[in-house]
Every structure is written in structure tokens, then in C-alpha cells.
Write a structure and sequence with these properties.
By secondary structure, the chain is mainly α. The protein has a domain at 81-131. Helices cover 51% and strands 0% of the residues. Helix 5 (100-117) packs across helix 6. The longest helix is centred in the first third of the chain and has 22 residues, at 11-32.
């Protein structure tokens, strides 16, 4: 509480936060008990509920339902072929450039733009790489 300047309004809230903190602490201890190349620790969200963290990150439960069902709510379509819809640019050969992040990023932005506008741009990975 002191490290993250936490103050609770009531004993009930304190109890809830302690339970949430204990869950996260247990997960951290479990993670740390196995060899990893990374580490985890507490932060100011360690006493938040899962729902509070999801809300902060902009998570929407409807989206999870959409993903689980595999189609847009209200639609009768059970499978969408994004290539046939024209939402995907042709496969590109990265060769040995080592900048796979640029291809992933431009592909996602291109597809998102298509879904929003109906127009599929062909963005330049090279320009993205040049900026880095």
C-alpha cells in the first residue's frame, strides 16, 4: 500500500483489494518458481480485479463473445475469408531483412483501414523501417 500510495475507503474495500493482491502475488510466486528469461513483479494494478484491468485496457466482453462465435453478432456468416473479401494485400517476401514487425504492423493497419473504409491501401514497410 505504501509503495503505490494506496488508500481504501472502507474495511470491505481493503479486504477485496487484499484478496486481489493475494491472487496476483500467488501468480507471481508461481511464475518465479520456474526458470524464465523474464521476471514479473507487483505494480499499481496488483490489487485491481480482472474486470477493472480489462476496463482500463479498453477490453469489451462483447468482443470476446464475437471471437468465440467466430462471426459478427447478428450475422449468419460463420466463416469469413478475408483474402476473398479483398482485405489482405498479397503475400510479400521479407527475404532476410529481419524486420518482420514492419510487415505485421503494415498488414494490420491495411486490414483495419479496409474494414473501416472499404479501400485497401498498400503501405510501405520500407518507410516504417526507415523511421526506426
Amino acid at each position: 500500500m505504501a509503495q503505490f500510495n494506496k488508500n481504501y475507503q472502507s474495511l470491505e474495500e481493503y479486504s477485496l483489494r487484499l484478496i486481489e493482491f493475494s491472487k496476483i502475488n500467488q501468480a507471481i510466486v508461481h511464475f518465479s518458481s520456474h526458470p524464465h528469461t523474464s521476471w514479473v513483479t507487483h505494480n499499481r494494478f496488483s490489487d485491481w480485479t480482472c474486470a477493472e484491468r480489462e476496463f482500463l485496457m479498453g477490453y469489451h466482453r462483447n468482443y470476446r463473445e464475437f471471437r468465440r462465435q467466430g462471426y459478427y453478432p447478428g450475422s449468419q456468416v460463420k466463416h469469413i475469408n478475408w483474402v476473398e473479401m479483398g482485405a489482405i494485400t498479397p503475400v510479400q517476401n521479407q527475404h532476410i531483412c529481419g524486420s518482420d514487425y514492419a510487415f505485421a504492423a503494415t498488414g494490420i493497419v491495411e486490414a483495419a483501414h479496409f474494414l473501416e473504409t472499404g479501400h485497401l491501401p498498400d503501405l510501405s514497410e520500407q518507410q516504417l523501417i526507415d523511421c526506426t
